[in-house]
Amino acid sequence: MLMKVIEGTVSQLRTLGMIFMHSFRKRETLSYPEEPVPLPPRYRGRIVLTRDPDGEERCVACNLCAVACPVACISLQKGEREDGRWYPEFFRINFSRCIYCGMCEEACPTSAIQLTPDFEMSEYRRQELVYEKDDLLISGPGKDHDYHFYKVAGLAIAGKDKGQAQDEAEPIDVKTLLP
Amino acid sequence: MATIHVDGQRYDVDGADNLLDACLSLGLDVPYFCWHPALGSVGACRQCAVKQYQDEDDTRGALVMACMTPAADGTRISIDDDEAREFRASVIEWLMINHPHDCPVCEEGGHCHLQDMTVMTGHDRRRYRFRKRTHRNQDLGPFIAHEMNRCITCYRCVRFYRDYAGGEDLGAFGANDNIYFGRHREGVLESPFAGNLTEVCPTGVFTDQTHSARYTRKWDLQFAPSLCHQCAVGCNISPGERYGELRRIENRYHGEVNRFFLCDRGRFGYGYVNRDDRPRRPEWRSDRDDACVTLEVDAALDRGADRLRSARRVIGIGSPRASLESNHQLRALVGNDAFSTGIAAAEQRCLAVMQALNHGCGLPTPTPREVERHDAVFILGEDLIASAARIGLAVRQAAQARRETLAAERDIPYWNDAAVRTLGQDRYHPVFIAYPTATDLDDVTAARFALAPDDIARLGFAVAHEIDDNAPAVAGLEPAMGEAARDIAARLLAAERPLVISGGSLGSEAILEAAGNVARAMARRARRGGLLLVRREANSTGLAMLGGEPLEWALDELASRRADAVVILENDLFQRLPAARIEAALDAAETVVVLDHQRTATWERAHLGLPAASFAEADGTLVSLEGRAQRFFQVFDPAYHRPETRIRESWRWLHALRADLLRHEVADIALDAVTRDCARACPALGAIVDAAPGADYRVHGLKLAREPHRYSGRTAMRAHLDVSEPRVPQDPDSPFTFSMEGYNGFDRPREEVAFAWAPGWNSPQAWNKFTDEVGGHLRAGDPGVRLLAPRPGAYAYATSIPEGFRGREDEWQVMMLPRLFGGDETSSRAAPILARATPATLVLATGDATRLGVSDGDRLVLASHTGSLTLPVRREATLPLGVVGVPAGLAPAPVAGEWARLAAARTEGPGEEGRP
């Protein structure tokens, strides 16, 4: 009985001591929002649409992000520009549904859609969480600096004719007799 | 029957097939490219290699191409064999050497046979590091986009286009790597079946250009089983919708009607559903000259009911392009004795003759598929490619089937396409066409008789007399025509299954009676034949069975003020009769209520316009020209994406209007109840209740899904309107849901399939999973019920034989010539069809043109009782003298058979020209 009382008292005092010693340690928490949160570059936060090295929209409206999205919060419509490029006429992400899983980024064949280290998206009204293309499109290439889909695709666009993509031969001419 | 062993398992198969056909019919997955159920085997792509063993003791085996090997009794093969798998993986790797990195920007992606086969074969890494072959594309017209880089040289396109559909302007140029599939020079693909290239091509070389501008992947489209409304054949289609717009029409397999192929009018003529100027809310004008105001549903119904209640007598004008249910509800609203079918009297008389013949000539009506199995065809007064294109394609197959007969005599299997074609050359089963102008089937005909309508009838009567002496003889028959009649009669009698085709295109009852006489004569000679009669519009057959007064009657009632209010259902009267007469009638009416989905000239004259649903937004039943009642189902709810729309099915509007008129509480009504009422009210249509399963149909307790299970964007597509998603629209009318939730598989047989998808099969080739055998019938049976069966009895011959045609000095007899593009009321409101339509021309015999001193392109004024029309002339050497062909689909349209004067247009400026 006596031993138990002694053991208990010592344990209590030791705990008090340890807690007290924490006052002298380095803090784990941040005084957010006064202090910014350091996020790793591959953090999965707010989604952006990037541009290719030419400064043109990377998104070709292939719909793969939308179909990969497990909560179906991406919707878009394909359009076609004068120069032959496909682009999204509208591109809408309902961030009130988004779970930031990154499946869209993984599915994207052109590196257009990317998740960024930003989670500061709170709104007072849910409707404000619906982002349109204007809200999503940034002016740079994001994490992938070099990829240019139309350089590898067979589709001809203005400034890149048939046969001018990577590893492409000149267009064939069936009317020639030369071997 | 034959027993084959596949990977150690025994299967019973049809021994006449090849191994690929047999394996696919058994549900086994074998990859393939060049083979197609309708085109046979050529063994070009080497993709369907399997290992064949000689007997039980053979362990080495040898690789064979499944599509080129008969499924003979005792055949032992292995699909899973390592060597065979490796071979197939190598083949696809070779095929992919030149394939561009295009899938994200390719309209085929997501329903691509090449993608499916690549995944099935397991090829997933590109090892080839050298350069890819590239090609320049061609502009192939408003329907088809061309991206030649994606070609894997399977040759399916030219085999379909040239060998199956008889097209001449698409070819393969060059060989091996120096190859091109296209036209000899840029230009519109001429074949009216070119649209099928989008489904026949296993990759994205030929894609649907009408879809491309507003492109959506197949997995994102909402589908429903629907019917083509662009002619009377009743082809089954799967329209796909996204964001409240119809985006695409895909073929829906029906084992007896369209099978794998549609015509371009049906596939690309849907644009009228998406028109911006469609009425979307009720419109009201208290007086004709007032500007219209839009109303809410209740206000519109109240005002409409008030006006109808205060009217002395209300009559209804139905429509052959509306469903049976809508027409029936209109008849219920106005009463049986105040209902007009909305069809002009002349056409309605032809429809009545056709219906009587279908019952009473002793020969059955063949389905379009059965048409292909007839070995002699006699076509009276129809240009099938223009009036019922899918039937025309079937007749072409009937002619070409001679090859298979010849092959069978030499023990060459019917599916060995190259051998069969080489053997057949240009030998065809006899097809005789009696039609004034050239037709697209002329290249397979034994003879075409370019005759005026009355002479076509006389030729028919003469043939009937040659077949059976009891049939009335034609007095004063020209010797040449008598010779022709003897020849036709002999060839028809020599055939095992002769077929007579006729229809109302030329508006001549005499031609129909002549066709009836030929059919009766063959029935009396106990021939297994068929009689197919072509109607003009989607529900012409059904409306003729429903019955009602002709349109002229309705106009007379209004003009003479025996009725002062009229309800017009989905019918632009100005397309049917001269404008003056219609205007007089509508001006006389105190109240005009119009229900339509298009802003037509008739709509503009309505006091109350109610926005009706087009085929994509409504359910209903149509009766096709073979007497098949089929149901079409609503594809999407227009109010989901555009909450401001007040579009309802016509039958729903009319039900509500009737309830309001009778001051009943407006209780909603469901499709099944309306269909039942219609069947009860019209005993001839009693079977339409069984045309499709009712709204309570379930599979595994589930409703059926309209959307593929990968349907994306559900929580974002409407988020710009409101971030809180509403409940998906509920559908009380059909067993389908507006959702991905519900059954969409293939393992439980069902008749109504919204879209074909099976694991690993995203392309239209997935239909093979839904059929009892490849190219056979849907496993649950093909949709629809047949209503027109021959009734036993003794049938008398028609005896009113017209006099031979005699031209007049200064007048020409008008023939209305159907047109595939631009000749039908709704599809000619779609931009791609207008772009494809050839300019309207008057067709004149070269002799007559010389007499008038005009040549091709000169403008002529055609003046008749119904108004005048200025059009350029096209001369045709074989056209009989004294007649002039006027293209259908123009307003004001002259009446077929009337006499008109022709004169050169005085100025070169635009005259009072009809709508193209």
UniProtKB/TrEMBL annotation, chain B:
<keyword id="KW-0520">NAD</keyword>
<feature type="domain" description="4Fe-4S His(Cys)3-ligated-type">
    <location>
        <begin position="83"/>
        <end position="122"/>
    </location>
</feature>
<dbReference type="InterPro" id="IPR010228">
    <property type="entry name" value="NADH_UbQ_OxRdtase_Gsu"/>
</dbReference>
<dbReference type="InterPro" id="IPR009010">
    <property type="entry name" value="Asp_de-COase-like_dom_sf"/>
</dbReference>
<dbReference type="GO" id="GO:0042773">
    <property type="term" value="P:ATP synthesis coupled electron transport"/>
</dbReference>
<dbReference type="GO" id="GO:0008137">
    <property type="term" value="F:NADH dehydrogenase (ubiquinone) activity"/>
</dbReference>
<keyword id="KW-0479">Metal-binding</keyword>
<keyword id="KW-0830">Ubiquinone</keyword>
<comment type="similarity">
    <text>Belongs to the complex I 75 kDa subunit family.</text>
</comment>
<dbReference type="GO" id="GO:0046872">
    <property type="term" value="F:metal ion binding"/>
</dbReference>
<dbReference type="Pfam" id="PF22117">
    <property type="entry name" value="Fer4_Nqo3"/>
</dbReference>
<comment type="function">
    <text>NDH-1 shuttles electrons from NADH, via FMN and iron-sulfur (Fe-S) centers, to quinones in the respiratory chain. Couples the redox reaction to proton translocation (for every two electrons transferred, four hydrogen ions are translocated across the cytoplasmic membrane), and thus conserves the redox energy in a proton gradient.</text>
</comment>
<dbReference type="InterPro" id="IPR036010">
    <property type="entry name" value="2Fe-2S_ferredoxin-like_sf"/>
</dbReference>
<dbReference type="GO" id="GO:0003954">
    <property type="term" value="F:NADH dehydrogenase activity"/>
</dbReference>
<dbReference type="Pfam" id="PF10588">
    <property type="entry name" value="NADH-G_4Fe-4S_3"/>
</dbReference>
<dbReference type="InterPro" id="IPR006963">
    <property type="entry name" value="Mopterin_OxRdtase_4Fe-4S_dom"/>
</dbReference>
<dbReference type="InterPro" id="IPR001041">
    <property type="entry name" value="2Fe-2S_ferredoxin-type"/>
</dbReference>
<protein>
    <recommendedName>
        <fullName>NADH-quinone oxidoreductase</fullName>
        <ecNumber>7.1.1.-</ecNumber>
    </recommendedName>
</protein>
<dbReference type="GO" id="GO:0051539">
    <property type="term" value="F:4 iron, 4 sulfur cluster binding"/>
</dbReference>
<dbReference type="GO" id="GO:0051537">
    <property type="term" value="F:2 iron, 2 sulfur cluster binding"/>
</dbReference>
<dbReference type="InterPro" id="IPR019574">
    <property type="entry name" value="NADH_UbQ_OxRdtase_Gsu_4Fe4S-bd"/>
</dbReference>
<keyword id="KW-0874">Quinone</keyword>
<dbReference type="Pfam" id="PF04879">
    <property type="entry name" value="Molybdop_Fe4S4"/>
</dbReference>
<dbReference type="InterPro" id="IPR006656">
    <property type="entry name" value="Mopterin_OxRdtase"/>
</dbReference>
<dbReference type="InterPro" id="IPR054351">
    <property type="entry name" value="NADH_UbQ_OxRdtase_ferredoxin"/>
</dbReference>
<feature type="domain" description="4Fe-4S Mo/W bis-MGD-type">
    <location>
        <begin position="221"/>
        <end position="277"/>
    </location>
</feature>
<dbReference type="GO" id="GO:0048038">
    <property type="term" value="F:quinone binding"/>
</dbReference>
<keyword id="KW-1278">Translocase</keyword>
<keyword id="KW-0001">2Fe-2S</keyword>
<keyword id="KW-0408">Iron</keyword>
<dbReference type="Pfam" id="PF00384">
    <property type="entry name" value="Molybdopterin"/>
</dbReference>
<dbReference type="GO" id="GO:0016020">
    <property type="term" value="C:membrane"/>
</dbReference>
<dbReference type="InterPro" id="IPR000283">
    <property type="entry name" value="NADH_UbQ_OxRdtase_75kDa_su_CS"/>
</dbReference>
<keyword id="KW-0004">4Fe-4S</keyword>
<dbReference type="InterPro" id="IPR050123">
    <property type="entry name" value="Prok_molybdopt-oxidoreductase"/>
</dbReference>
<keyword id="KW-0411">Iron-sulfur</keyword>
<feature type="domain" description="2Fe-2S ferredoxin-type">
    <location>
        <begin position="1"/>
        <end position="83"/>
    </location>
</feature>
<dbReference type="Pfam" id="PF13510">
    <property type="entry name" value="Fer2_4"/>
</dbReference>
<comment type="subunit">
    <text>Composed of 13 different subunits. Subunits NuoCD, E, F, and G constitute the peripheral sector of the complex.</text>
</comment>
